[in-house]
Amino acid sequence: MSGVTTGGVTPEYRGEGVVMRCSLRAVRRSGDPPRGTRSSGGGRSASGVRRGRTWPRGRPRRTRRRPSSSGCGTGSRSAGWWRRAPALGAGLADRTGLPVACDNDVRATAGPELTALADSRGSLLYAAVGTGVGGALAVDGRMLHGAAGIAGHLGHLPSPEAAGLPCTCGATGHLEVIASGPGITAHYARLTGTRPDRLETVAARAAVGEQAAVRAITTGATAAGRVLGGLANALGPDRVVVGGGVPRIGALYRSALATAFAAELMPPLRGLLPEPPLHGGDAAVRGAAALPATLPLHRPGAHR
Ligand SMILES: [Zn+2]
User: Fold this and answer.
1) Which of 48, 107, 154, 196 has its CA 20 to 30 A from that of 4?
2) How many angstroms separate the alpha carbon of residue 172 from the centre of ligand 1?
3) What is residue 166's DSSP assignment?
4) Residue 71's pLDDT is what?
5) What's residue 93's pLDDT?
6) How far away, in angstroms, is 287 Cα from ligand 1 center?
7) pLDDT at res. 68
8) How far does the centroid of ligand 1 lie from the alpha carbon of residue 164, in Å?
9) How far is the CA of 175 from the centre of ligand 1 (A)?
10) CATH architecture assigned to 121-275
């Protein structure tokens, strides 16, 4: 069994073929070349692989062994292509000759956090704040996928702080456009008339007391905290995890998020705090490796 993630942002807007090539390239990097393909790779994906312990018996030993099944996690900016995930899983199974389980990258990343809960029937609210705002929801020990696999897209919840701002999904006023990294830098640009090159520039200016920078960061963090607090009331999670690159810009963001989160909680949940992830950069690959145990497998040739 192995886990493969395309990592980063899979450029689904360039078409399904590019998503497939990103995934196949990730599999190839795992040391298990897809059968019968001459994929050239492409896109802006990175990949990582964690090998499991289960290997099929009776196969010749190779320098790099062949896994018995593969879990695939793909990063995507939007939910649209995920409706076609079954076709991606079936295609990958055919082209690799392996059973494949497929899920999005944030659910894969949240998987080890769910496994780590003291209660195997526990509930988890996981947010990933980076170039977008993604998430994963697990209730009573089970990861939610929902209709069209869309469950967990926290960035597209309404946020008063984002009122009137256009979202990548086509609606307006969604959390992602004020709380994500690009959302914070865009807010800073609206406040100052100058566009910073990156989020870390805004963070550095906030650290020396520039009020526009402080406002852009705290507004985004507050928006995220309010939405997560409301979701906590709705779901009753045992643990709330906030991962992704944005919380790492500094204590200002994390503190504002935690304050806004706490202010939303109903009395039974008071004391619940947003926490950083338990695992580092390999969490998505760890989670992808575990997917074949929890998701239906696409098997080679099954769709023909
Ligand atoms: Zn949206």
Assistant:
1) 154
2) 7
3) B
4) 64
5) 82
6) 26
7) 61
8) 12
9) 7
10) 2-Layer Sandwich (3.30)
What spacing in Å lies between the alpha carbon of 160 and ligand 1's midpoint? 13
CA distance 47 to 258: 32
pLDDT of amino acid 44: 25
Q: Give the pTM.
A: 0.77
Q: How many angstroms is it from 154 CA to the middle of ligand 1?
A: 9
Q: Cα–Cα distance between 246 and 53 in angstroms, integer?
A: 34
Query: Measured in angstroms, how far is the CA atom of residue 39 from the centroid of ligand 1?
Result: 33
Cα 255 to ligand 1 centroid, rounded to whole Å: 25
Q: Residue 283's closest CA among 46, 73, 10?
A: 73
Which protein residues have their CB within 5 A of the ion that is ligand 1? 156, 167, 169, 171, 174
Residues making up the chain, counted from first to last: 304
How is the chain split into domains, by residue range? Answer: 2-107+283-293, 121-275
Q: Which residue has the tokens 């290997």?
A: 55
- Provide the pLDDT for residue 266: 98
Which H or E run includes 40?
none
Supply the pLDDT for residue 200.
97
H helix intervals, 40-140: 85-96, 105-115
- What's the 129 CA to ligand 1 centre distance in angstroms? 14
Q: What is the pLDDT of residue 82?
A: 60
Return the pLDDT at 105.
84
CA of 239 to the centre of ligand 1 (A): 25
Distances (CA, A) of 230 to 79, 247, 258: 22, 19, 13
Distance 128 CA to ligand 1 centre (A): 15
Residues of the chain with pLDDT under 70: 1-16, 30-85, 303-304
